[in-house]
Hints:
Two copies of one chain form a homodimer. Chain A has 17 helices and nine strands. The first copy, chain A, has helices at 6-11, 32-38, 44-48, 51-64, 78-82, 103-107, 113-116, 118-130, 144-153, 161-169, 171-194, 212-232, 250-256, 270-277, 288-293, 296-309, 328-339; strands spanning 69-71, 87-90, 94-97, 136-142, 199-204, 239-243, 261-263, 281-286, 314-318. In chain A, helix 4 (51-64) runs parallel beside helix 8 (118-130), helix 8 (118-130) packs parallel to helix 11 (171-194) and helix 16 runs parallel beside helix 17 (328-339). The longest helix of chain A has 24 residues, at 171-194. The A-B interface holds A 158-159, 161, 164-165, 168-169, 208-215, 245-250, 252, 266-272, 285, 287, 289-290, 292-293, 297, 301, 304, 319 and B 158-159, 161, 164-165, 168-169, 208-215, 245-250, 252, 266-272, 285, 287, 289-290, 292-293, 297, 301, 304, 319.
Amino acid sequence: MSQAPLLLRVLSGETTQRPPVWFMRQAGRHLPEYRALRAKAPDFVSFCLNPEMAAEATLQPMRRYPFDASIVFADILLIPKALGQDVRFETGEGPRLGALPSIESMRERTADAGAALAVVGETLARVREALEPERALIGFCGAPWTVATYMLDGEGREDRASARRFAYERPEQVDALLDVLVEASAHYLAMQARSGAQALKIFESWAEGLPDQLFERLVIRPHAKLVARLRELGVETPLIGFPRGAAASAEKYAAAVPVQAVALDTACPLEVGKRVQAKVAIQGALDPLLLRAGGPELDARVEELIEAWGKGPYVFNLGHGILPDTPIPHVEQVLKRITGAGSR
Amino acid sequence: MSQAPLLLRVLSGETTQRPPVWFMRQAGRHLPEYRALRAKAPDFVSFCLNPEMAAEATLQPMRRYPFDASIVFADILLIPKALGQDVRFETGEGPRLGALPSIESMRERTADAGAALAVVGETLARVREALEPERALIGFCGAPWTVATYMLDGEGREDRASARRFAYERPEQVDALLDVLVEASAHYLAMQARSGAQALKIFESWAEGLPDQLFERLVIRPHAKLVARLRELGVETPLIGFPRGAAASAEKYAAAVPVQAVALDTACPLEVGKRVQAKVAIQGALDPLLLRAGGPELDARVEELIEAWGKGPYVFNLGHGILPDTPIPHVEQVLKRITGAGSR
């Protein structure tokens, strides 16, 4: 096959005969082989930073399922770590971050963020080496605001209230932190592109709940800066932006941030997706809870998504990460419907 | 003054010279007089069900501030209580609900839900008696799905995942529960209208995260049924629907549910609000975190909202409840800008 991987064709604006498919968190706890591998590492950060283990985790779903794309196994909180903030994952508790370093000390580290996380590049290189050429490899980072919410909160609270409060009450500090994160993320993504990533995804997991002016300031502006900075650094890799929880602002986002695809979340209405697709490729948005539930309703929704969005450039995916207790046959059921085969 | 209260004029489709204004949770913990009153009741449910105390709580912000409307002090979880489910509020923990009664036993109680909660009617009557005629009195209920999430979860978890899971995995049970809640809420709201409520608000606090088919099934359909049932019961009172967290579906909601106003949340973009306003009156959507932060940015956003939405039928409000640690001068700052006076 001389053609580019299906995912890359869609990211270049092509409408393909069937959508390429991959699932957020496809590498992870829903797979017994992942749980066995993960048990061998002392903690989650060590696991992410071990290229052999992280590459193996990345490849596990690719061996089992006919996914069209692979996403490097890593975590959005490696960036704060590279900037000098302590990051720990307490079992069953989520992340806990140490005191926020000074803006100055973090700014000094931004240009080296790629080098500091070179192990992620090594993971990518190993995966690219092992993966068939028709299957694409995706790199990623957390978007500046999402990473900032963890850095400011010290942990992952559901409503991000204290980070949003800071955004109002200490705007200079928050904007300076976002600029640091833009710069560090640009170098981190550039390193990933050099190491074999063929597409890069920017995960804005906490775009929800933001009024117009904050969405503009905390999401659109930093994403646009990050894209511009990447292009300045010579990175031509296609980009997927994921402003999760902000379906009402997805069109505005697509118009303002020059990404090649906008990923849509579970709650994005079909008609909103179509309007976004008039501008760029889209990705999404099967409900992980429906995937877990399975049954004929799952088939019906898969059909509905393909019917509504498959007539334009479309990457089939979930609207949020796959749930750890998702039955493997349900994943196979969806993949069979899309690719003709549930497993490899 | 012979004119109808400003709120009711807007709910009849009129564009008023300035928007009427009230704040979600205006009666509550941000007021020292509320905290003193609340301390006199043994627990939150007893407080809500004591008409003297609840009326006093309702009236406290009306004495202090020039709000155009008052909303009865009550709780959305009085309905499960009226249907026979145990409801407790643990201090600092949120609500805890007992085992879900059988659908049959709850169905038998629906017609009496108004009578079972007659104390809320007594609160309304007391408030209506004390309130100036140019200030409107609002009654409310939780929307069926939102109330169902608490009844199914047994508590208020952030992501409603187990309730959404039930919606997929036990659709008959969830749909039957929604029907019971539609019927009970219709009788409850009808009783409130008879007791002096001049507008009724349906709070869908958990409309977020729902894909098309669930939004249709869990939000639009039960709301439309509830409105139809209220009209069948002879209630002509104007209705405000609040599908919180679903700004991307607000237009669809406004087209499908015949309410007189749609309340919009903090994250609703200005342009989406304008599109909804082409169909019905709108209410919202100042960020409570910005109200708490105060300063010139608060003034700027108030101006922006009035500029964008004040040219059509518009009720000024927050996009979510006022936060307990909101400084009173910030509330006065907003009210002064809108009504010309910060306090009474």
